[in-house]
Design a protein that fits this description.
alpha+beta, 14 helices, 20 strands, about 30% helix
Length: about 500
């Protein structure tokens, strides 16, 4: 355990900027910070060697600047190396620079495509575009010195050996989105390799009561059971669920650091909703699968990582969603685990006729559990003051719209507690009463909803008018209708081709 800092000083640092030289027989990569070393990639046998720079790079070689290597993907022509071409600085977490990936470049290692016929050349070009499409899906993030795959609490609870392991190796594999790309690369050269996460990060410098602090949201999408919305539902045999997202809210003030974690993920049963021409395709629960065994695997992992699980299920208790709600409830009962509590809240029924103020019923109902699970707090002297003992695992059908609304409300309640503990807010003051900050809070959570939704469904989120304004509006309903129709078109008529033919950066 590191008593002074959430993140210890790294003995396995990553270079931040490089010069790339593409030559007829080799590709050379030279760190700007250390020109005594070069990475030499042979374009004939594709081997990679780290060498002392003794002038191997031809003088006439053109050079371009890059910001790191994401790894290698193997297509028909052969391996392509994927490099970071452009990045954007978005702020700091615990003093570490955080970057957003803006643009990549894919450089073929083979010197020629003459070994391919015309059809193969066309297919290689199509696969290349698919990889680029994945990398252009907003947003990927990275840091050269901070492990973005792990929460502050997990980083604190590490061993002394942790600091000697390269970031790419010690990362939480669930959220390391270039895991397979890096495995295709030479793992001995990890100081050249940048681990990336997919999701959402917002870092804001805020002032309340004259006290300056940083408020940050980090959401990490799991690379397991990823895929387009209607093609990836439910659970797999390893206990992975579709659209699993870990969301961490961080507050940094006067050298103290605190965080609060929530999760979301598809209902952990074997169920499908394959697209048809119907607006809402039928949901089908598999009859021959062992739901209990898969759910047990899922929750064993969740408990081992996060502790106690409060399951908030927001789906309907009648109609098409009723069978899923009943089956989920029954499985939780069969698990017989006192670390799991099931909370069902029929979102649409409770909030019908635009009575979204009734969401306070749910927040008040689970307030006691939220207080007991607590949050993570590290004092300015590095002393652990509070540990989070469990999480709310929230779901609806997509784990997008209803889920984000409820997560934002739970996050706001806990943020009030955290800010009062740090003496940023006075006793009795609440986040929702601080008008400027409340406006920022709502805007960030609405942006968060849109980005996570785009990544899974291809459109912005529904119900964000409530998240942004605190009220459900007719304009918001019309916006939801528009996004729903776009989802229908994309998910029913376009995602099938993408799912069948996709060459994702996650391919094994």
């Amino acid at each position: 355990m590191n008593p002074k800092s959430v993140v210890p000083k790294d003995s396995m640092s990553i270079y931040e900027n490089f010069y790339l030289y593409i030559c007829p027989d080799n590709i050379f990569i030279e760190p700007v910070q250390n020109t005594n070393v070069i990475l030499n990639i042979d374009r004939v046998d594709f081997t990679t060697q780290k060498q002392t720079n003794k002038g191997q790079i031809p003088n006439e070689s053109n050079r371009q600047q890059i910001s790191g290597i994401l790894g290698i993907v193997n297509l028909l022509v052969g391996p392509y190396i994927i490099v970071i071409k452009e990045k954007k600085h978005i702020g700091k977490i615990n003093g570490h620079d955080i970057w957003q990936l803006l643009e990549t470049d894919m450089i073929p290692l083979p010197k020629t495509k003459l070994h391919l016929n015309e059809t193969q050349v066309q297919m290689d070009r199509e696969y290349l575009n698919m990889v680029k499409q994945n990398l252009n899906t907003p947003y990927y993030y990275f840091s050269y010195t901070y492990d973005l795959t792990n929460t502050m609490q997990r980083l604190y609870n590490t061993s002394a050996h942790f600091v000697n392991v390269p970031i790419c190796e010690r990362a939480d594999q669930r959220f390391l989105w270039n895991y397979y790309l890096l495995n295709n690369f030479n793992l001995d050269h990890q100081e050249f390799c940048v681990p990336i996460i997919h999701g959402f990060i917002a870092i804001n410098n805020c002032i309340l009561n004259g006290k300056e602090f940083f408020w940050t949201i980090v959401s990490r999408r799991s690379r397991n059971r990823h895929g387009p919305r209607l093609f990836k539902r439910g659970i797999d045999q390893n206990g992975n669920v579709a659209n699993f997202v870990e969301t961490e809210m961080i507050v940094e003030y006067n050298d103290t650091r605190s965080s609060y974690v929530q999760t979301r993920g598809s209902i952990p049963l074997y169920w499908t909703q394959y697209p048809t021409l119907k607006y809402k395709p039928a949901m089908q629960i598999a009859q021959s699968e062992n739901h209990l065994e898969a759910a047990n695997k899922h929750f064993n992992e969740q408990i081992s990582i996060y502790g106690q699980q409060i399951l908030i299920n927001l789906i309907d208790h009648r109609g098409a969603e009723q069978e899923l709600e009943t089956k989920f409830r029954d499985i939780v009962i069969l698990l017989e685990d006192n670390k799991i509590k099931y909370e069902a809240f029929d979102f649409h029924s409770e909030c019908k006729k635009m009575r979204w103020d009734r969401l306070s019923i749910l927040v008040n109902r689970v307030a006691h559990e939220q207080d007991n699970l607590k949050y993570f707090l590290l004092g300015s002297d590095g002393k652990l003051l509070i540990s989070q003992k469990g999480v709310f695992r929230t779901n609806c059908v997509d784990c997008l719209d209803r889920t984000n609304v409820v997560q934002s409300l739970l996050g706001r309640r806990m943020l009030t507690i955290m800010l009062q503990k740090l003496d940023i807010l006075n006793f009795g003051q609440k986040v929702e009463d601080q008008l400027d900050f409340e406006s920022l809070f709502k805007s960030v959570w609405a942006d968060h909803a849109d980005i996570i939704s785009i990544q899974y469904s291809g459109t912005g989120a529904l119900k964000t008018d409530f998240t942004r304004t605190g009220k459900r509006t007719y304009n918001g309903m019309f916006r939801d209708l528009k996004n729903s129709l776009i989802r229908y078109y994309k998910n029913n008529l376009r995602d099938g081709v993408r799912q069948v033919k996709r060459i994702s950066i996650l391919l094994k």
